[in-house]
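Residues pack. Consider this:
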Amino acid sequence: MGAAQTTDKSFRSTDTLFHTYSRFASNPNIPPKPTEEEKTTESQIQTLLEKRESLIEQLTNHLTTTPSALKQNNLTLHRSTLHEHTLTLSRLRSSISESRQRANLLSTVRSDISSYHSANPETAEADYMLDERSRLDRTHGVADSVLSQAYAVNEQFGVQREMLGNVQRRIVGAAGKVPGINGLIGRIGAKKRRDGFIMAGFVAFCMLVFLYFM
């Protein structure tokens, strides 16, 4: 029973250490060499897995002399969990190693480029000018696109104005062909002007009354 309790406690400790160890694999700025914390965490996980394997062997020997279905099920679960944690440690080790190799390779490439530019300042200046030319070309492309859209909108406005002008000319032409329509339009316009004069006079009267009683 004591071995089983120790194994359960070992499982919980391993889960906590795995959480810490996984952060090294996901670190975007992984250092070129393992830190002391990384090495310590990995060593602690390895030690716990070895202890758990030894405890599982003790439980297996214990069940040989005192069989128990419940304990056998627990032992099977412990073995499965130990196997999964062993695979997890191997996977995290590989992930950390690959991330470190990529970071070191990128650092080496950057260092080589920097050294090359330092030894060939003319090339570095030419690369800078090419980058600036590329940025200017992209800026000009955006400006050309905006101007093209503006010209298209302006052209649409011109087409719409032409259409409205044609409609207006057709209305005027049709009005001239219908007897009395011009007179009717004139009377409507005169009525509107008369109504405007009446409204203006009423507003002026109201203002005079308001000023008189102030």
